[in-house]
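Worked problem 6 (solution included).
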Amino acid sequence: MIISLNGELLQDNAARIDPADRGFLLGDGVFETIAVRRNAVRHLAAHLSRLRVGADLLDIPLPGNDELIAGRIGAVLTANSLKDAVVRATLTRGPATRGLLPSGVVVPTFLIAAYPMPEPAGPARLVTAKSTRRNEHSPLARIKHTNYLDNLLARQEAARAGADDAVILNTAGNVAETSVANIFILVDGYLLTPPVADGALPGIMRGEAIKLARGEERTVTPEMLARASEVFLTNSLGVRPVAHIDGAPIGEGEPGLITQLLATRL
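Solution. The predicted structure is:
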């Protein structure tokens, strides 16, 4: 696989990340996952805008403008002969002296890699994570940062339970999202998704689903989740129906009408 590391195209096995890179040592960085379908990079401007928001929060300079980054993404796709792909753009603060507080001149590391688009996943079986909670009060809940350990704990818990993903609750006990996706529920005739204030990541596809299906941002309790007639997940790769949560079927256990509609539109 050929990657772009700080603007240079390299074979992945020849690339080198500095051992003092704060992304490796401290998770000091941000990233974006971007879908490419039939040579079209989906929602690139929105992804790069969110990447800049995260970089600004952490005070990491993002090298180049959107046009330059788009060119690097295109170069990686061409070099790997990929027309349908998953692009991962990762920005870290780069190497620095030892210690928590950043010091000296920041020389960020910017890595772009592309992978073949996986086959669509089937309906998901979810469990509610008990091993961790989302801190909805932290500004980090609103960006895609490179320290994903809470999500990792939740996903491992789901795997041990034989599930595909885990619902993560916030500190108030309300639904935030899953380990890799935003969540939508149809309950009492309303299509709802947890608000950013409850710890939901402001997902790109989440925003598109809200617009297309007239969804509402509203606090979702576990009780509301349990009695929902339709549940689906959204992330950069699209829409995934949910069939079971904590062992109980959702509706008829089949993808609902809204899920089916959005799956063809997003």
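Discussion: The chain has a mean pLDDT of 96.
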